[in-house]
Amino acid sequence: MHKNSVKKVRVDKVLSNLGLLSRNDGRTAAKRGRIAINGVICKTSDEKCDPLSDEISLDGVVIDARPLVYYMLNKPAGVITANDDKFSKTVFDIMEDKRVDLAAVGRLDKDTTGILLITNDGALNHRMLSPKHHVPKTYQVLIDGILTDTDIKLLETGIDIGDEKPTLPAKVEIKDTENPQHVAITLTEGRYHQVKRMFEAVGTPVLKLHRSDFGPLKLDENLAEGCYRDLTEEEMAALEALMSGK
Ligand code: URA
């Protein structure tokens, strides 16, 4: 499980890293009482703060000094993808990192398990979910029934699930012909309960749903349900490539 490291750093370094002040300007700004940590005016620019939890302000304006974080979480069944809920445990309730700016990239149903990306990078969140970009998502599905060739064709070409438009083309795979109830489906859109509604539409309701892939990210097999970790450098590079359209 991810452990949050709390590191204190000089407030002038935080402001200069953000490009708001040079280190020299920081000294003068502190002397003039322009910098505050948690509402307390700094006397000198070498005062230390925790950018993850302290409120830093310059000229009375609170600065968002929190670094961007990217977590892969293996969502267990029984928790909901929401920031807060009166009745159910949320994915944020099971995380140690309690930063309020974290958000899940997309949603999984309460009974769905698998890969969920959690970040405070709003641009990435938007990019991954934008209907313009068709980021693929792969689900491992246990269905009640067996798909016919016609069903597979329908699911793959686009099927009416009661929305204005049929679904976009998808990829359906039955990896093990001995176990045809185990199906993998890759979608490039994310409508409400989409996988369940697609299989329901061909008369084979979903019994179990697990997301194994999200864009370039694959669920880490060593990540137990309910646990999360920082993305690796390779995973970050894959996301950056996606963001820059490579
Ligand atoms: N489609 C669904 O029906 N449920 C999910 O949780 C994700 C995709």
Summarize the structure.
By secondary structure, the protein is an alpha+beta fold. It has six helices and 15 strands.
Q: In terms of topology, how is this protein built?
A:
Blueprint: E1 9-10, H1 11-17, H2 23-31, E2 35-37, E3 40-41, E4 48-49, E5 56-58, E6 61-63, E7 70-75, E8 103-104, E9 113-119, H3 122-129, E10 137-143, H4 149-157, E11 171-173, E12 182-187, H5 194-201, E13 206-214, E14 217-218, E15 228-230, H6 233-243
Parallel strand pairs: 9-13
Antiparallel strand pairs: 1-4, 2-3, 2-5, 5-6, 7-9, 7-15, 8-9, 10-12, 10-13, 11-12, 13-14
The protein binds uracil (URA).
The site of uracil has 8 residues, from helix 5.
Explain what this protein looks like in three dimensions.
It is a single chain. The protein has 246 residues and is of the alpha+beta class. It is 21% helix and 24% strand. It has helices spanning 11-17, 23-31, 122-129, 149-157, 194-201, 233-243, and strands at 9-10, 35-37, 40-41, 48-49, 56-58, 61-63, 70-75, 103-104, 113-119, 137-143, 171-173, 182-187, 206-214, 217-218, 228-230. The strands form 3 sheets. Strands 7, 8, 9, 10, 11, 12, 13, 14 and 15 form a 9-stranded mixed β-sheet that branches. A 4-stranded antiparallel β-sheet has the order 3-2-5-6. The chain is elongated and about 75 Å long. The model is unreliable at 1-5 (pLDDT under 50). Uracil binds next to helix 5.
